[in-house]
Design a protein that fits this description.
Elements (H helix, E strand, L loop, with lengths): L13 H27 L2 H22 L5 H19 L5 H11 L20 H9 L6 H11 L5 H8 L3 H18 L8 H23 L10 H17 L4 H14 L2 H4 L19 H17 L5 H15 L8 H14 L3 H15 L1 H13 L8 H12 L3 H14 L3 H13 L4
Amino acid sequence: MARGDGPALSPGAPGEGRAAVEAVWRTSAARIVATLARSTGDLALAEDVAQEALAEALVAWPRDGVPANPAGWLVTAGRRRAVDAFRRRAALDDRYAALARDAGRGAGPAGDADLLHDPDAVGDDVLALMFVACHPVLSREAQVALTLRVVGGLTTEEIGRAFLVPTATVQARITRAKKTLSAARVPFAVPSGPERRDRLASVLAVVYLVFTEGSTATSGDDLLRPDLAREGVRLARVLAHLAPDEPEVLGLLALLELTAARFPARVADDGSAVLLEDQDRRRWDRAAIRRGRAALAAAGRAGNGLGAYGLQAAIAECHAVVAPSVAATDWERVVVLYDALGRLAPSPVVDLNRAVAVAMAHGPAAGLALVERLADSGALAGSHLLPSVRGELLRRLGRDAEARDDLARAAALCPNPRERRVLQDKIAALPAG
């Protein structure tokens, strides 16, 4: 790309340009790919040309300076690459003509002012991208993997850890998914009517997983990935605008808001994880709590009882609002909510969390009995969650040697170093055996 191709370029230090490329890609990759997917109607092509634009920026920005609209620059560069691709394919159809006209507008990459839409607007390109990725021609596993990759920006390794499957499996799912979408000529648009409702469950699951990865990172040195968590909350808000009468959409939004409200107190100044019982609740985000409670109330009014996300939000509300401390939490109500959640959406993780609630309500021995039953079933094998809970309950019962073994097993399995450190600190605090 020629020097001075766009206005407002200001050459800086070489490292500045590269840092700017990395920063805009980290924060805007999903919107850039989504915009290109809307323009080209081809998700796989959109990802390819976005990567090519990124490579072009790594050369141009350190040399020419960072453009005034970095994301717009990347979109326009990607569009030009897409035009080249269509030309190579000798597919000079109407789509190519429209795309070429778009790419020819303005003075250059930095001059496109309308390339990225209002992120909170209904019909958001990222939301459309999510519905495309959740098309019924794909399996649920492929839907979630593809959306996490192109919308959440997770690496295949991160997705593999989230699903407890090999990285190669995730990569294969994503590749097959893109080929399937292309072969089926899935339109880039938010569906309407019954089709939207059918795909909504998959979209909600993806948003939840994106947020969960941001809430407790499965890779890297940090406990939280705030950018990913914020994207999950943002997408949930967009969904709530789009489907304001859907109780599970509102329930999910409530859950994410109430969970994110605790983020300011979850990490100490040195980056270490702070357990719930040790958190300074004065640091919790009160505005997020109010938004979460409002969404939860709306979910209750919209449906005949809460769904799975709404029940989890109600549990989060028990911690965030009612209780001034862990000890003062209404654990009986938490147990009842987990009972309902277990009937509606049974899973080993729900059972484990219910065991924790039972332990808090009725003592560690009662909770441990449930955990042992879960362990005997073979559920959660390979996860650090079960030995972590069992080790803690054994510690509270004074069975220190057994607690040490379980906590050590949990630390060995824990993928996050900050969480692992908490487990190691617990082991170190046990009396010498």
